[in-house]
Amino acid sequence: MREFPTHPAARLPSPPRKILHVDMDAFYASVEQRDDPSLRGKPVAVAWRGARSVVCAASYEARVFGVRSAMPAIRAERLCPQMIFVPPDFVRYKAVSRQIREIFARHTELIEPLSLDEAYLDVTVTKTGLPSATATAEAIRAAIREETQLTASAGVAPNKFLAKIASDWNKPDGLCVIRPHQVDAFLMPLPVGRLPGVGKVMEAKLAVLGITSVGELRGFALAELEQRFGRWGRRLHELARGIDEHAVQPERPTLQVSAEDTFEHDLRLDELEPHIRRLAEKAWAGHQREHARVARTVVLKLKTSDFHTLTRSLTPLQRPQSAKELADIACALRDRVERPADSRYRLVGVGLAGFVEQDSYHAQTDLFDIVPE
């Protein structure tokens, strides 16, 4: 477990929450290695083989070769010719995810899932009465190891964005704790690229201003950042000071299920299909957890290289019945993006929205299927 020195000048704007970010280690690949002993210790990519396939997850043995999730499978195979490709099995991954969620729920009701393999937990007050957030994180990780034979990394911090950075600090199977008085000591030396939302393009823009670290970012006044970056400038100003007032949001009636990725390098519209199809698989897996409700609307989200967000949506006569149908519709929605062909995009997302009760949906479709006598 790593801790950081105190900083006497560290201040937070309000009494701190106690937030955990728990992130399973190479989740899909680890489930495959757990269930098939012949895969243990070997480079594994959860993906279909083929030019259009994208890696859903890579084992740590594969990561040694530079293989990462969201990478085209064909490139992963070039980097690691001995790679073992395993087709994804989201039914199994969802079952394990439910086990992990049950472990979380023993400690708090304030759980905000981000995907099958990670979640925020507010443990300011817990059901168990453990003496600290650190003790709660250790108990959760121990239960996950014992009950699923998998490992999880966790970050403990006063807010969500710090907890998420911390959970990645000592991966795999690690724990990192940032106490309120340690926020400055943790943040100041970090490269600005570690801040959420600061990708390669924004990192380059900040570098032009002489900003490469969070400490250097703090040297810029709020007004100057807002003038240069608009509302995003205010967010940069807050993040550089460890400020994040977003509360953990427990599950509510779903408005949208989605999955999105920010690319290492900006891509053209015609290069997005494999990523759209991979994200459609993840969004569909999330949709399947909605047992009593179904979604009717497909949403495609894009963010341009200059940070403009575009969304296109379609509510077909018949809702999507599979991840493939979802992907096909999302790919078709690209035709409704009216921008120059050489435009580049830093993020793509695929979602399902327009949720209705399953019984209501079937009643409507049955009504339309009635043939007049």
TrEMBL record:
Record's catalysed reaction(s): DNA(n) + a 2'-deoxyribonucleoside 5'-triphosphate = DNA(n+1) + diphosphate
One Pfam family named in its UniProt record: IMS
Q: Where in the cell is it found?
A: Cytoplasm
What does the cofactor field's note say? Binds 2 magnesium ions per subunit.
A molecular function annotated in GO for this UniProt entry is: DNA-directed DNA polymerase activity
The UniProt keywords, alphabetically, are: Cytoplasm, DNA damage, DNA repair, DNA replication, DNA-binding, DNA-directed DNA polymerase, Magnesium, Metal-binding, Mutator protein, Nucleotidyltransferase, Transferase
Q: What SUPFAM superfamilies does the entry give?
A: DNA/RNA polymerases, Lesion bypass DNA polymerase (Y-family), little finger domain
Which residues of this protein are catalytic?
A: E118
Q: For the UmuC domain, which residue ranges apply?
A: 19-199
Which residues of this protein are annotated with the site description Substrate discrimination?
Y28
- The residues that hold Mg(2+) are D23, D117
Question: PROSITE patterns in the record, alphabetically?
Answer: UMUC
Q: What's the Enzyme Commission number for this chain?
A: 2.7.7.7
Cofactor(s) this protein requires: Mg(2+)
Q: Which residues cross the membrane?
A: none
Tell me, in one coarse class, where this protein mainly resides. Answer: cytoplasm
Stated family: Belongs to the DNA polymerase type-Y family.
Instruction: Tell me the function of this protein.
Output: Poorly processive, error-prone DNA polymerase involved in untargeted mutagenesis. Copies undamaged DNA at stalled replication forks, which arise in vivo from mismatched or misaligned primer ends. These misaligned primers can be extended by PolIV. Exhibits no 3'-5' exonuclease (proofreading) activity. May be involved in translesional synthesis, in conjunction with the beta clamp from PolIII.
Its quaternary structure? Monomer.
Q: Could you tell me what this protein is called?
A: DNA polymerase IV
User: What species is given as this protein's source?
Assistant: Rhodanobacter terrae
Gene giving rise to this polypeptide: dinB
